[in-house]
Amino acid sequence: VQLVESGGGLVQSGGSLRLSCAASGFTFSNYAMRWYRQAPGKEREWIARISRDGDLIDYADSVKGRFTISRDGAKNTVYLQMSSLKPEDTAVYFCYLYYYHADVHDYWGQGIQVTVSS
After folding, report:
1. In what order do the strands lie in the sheet with 67-72?
2. Quick one: CA torsion of 28, 69, 39, 1, rounded to 10 degrees?
3. What CA–CA distance (Å, rounded) separates 43 from 37?
């Protein structure tokens, strides 16, 4: 399994970024996907989840109404569109795969930095 994030960078407060997570090594359409983030000095925080078919989507309260998770089965990619960014959104963002099949299986991407300047 490989999860590779891209699209991070530096943006001004109020701006937008779109993160991508290219997935390989498993049947992408069979599994829900998640985004997490970790700010300096803080614990890793779940922020969004999308079901395997895209019908069920959940967000953490901290990003609801500003972030949009989506997926493209043809590209084996999950996206996180981030709008109205705030300095407190500054963090390393991670793509995450979790499933249970006879045992727990979970995989993290390498993470990508998003920095929001005030």
Report:
1. 2-6, 17-24, 77-82, 67-72
2. 0
3. 9
User: pLDDT tens across 9-53, in order?
Assistant: 999 999 999 999 999 999 999 999 999 999 999 999 999 999 999
Half-sphere exposure of 32 (CA within 13 A, CB side): 13
Q: What 3-state DSSP class applies to 88? A: helix
For 16, counting Cβ atoms within 10 Å of its Cβ (0-12 exposed, 13-18 middle, 19+ buried), the class is exposed
Residue 104 to residue 31: CA distance in whole angstroms: 13
Report H helices in the chain: none
Which residue's entry shows tokens 């895209």? 54
The closest alpha carbon to 67, from 91, 54, 84, 88, belongs to: 84
* Cα–Cα distance for residue pair 92/88, rounded to 1 Å: 12
CA atoms within 13 A on the CB side of 53: 1
Tokens linked to 108: 């993290």
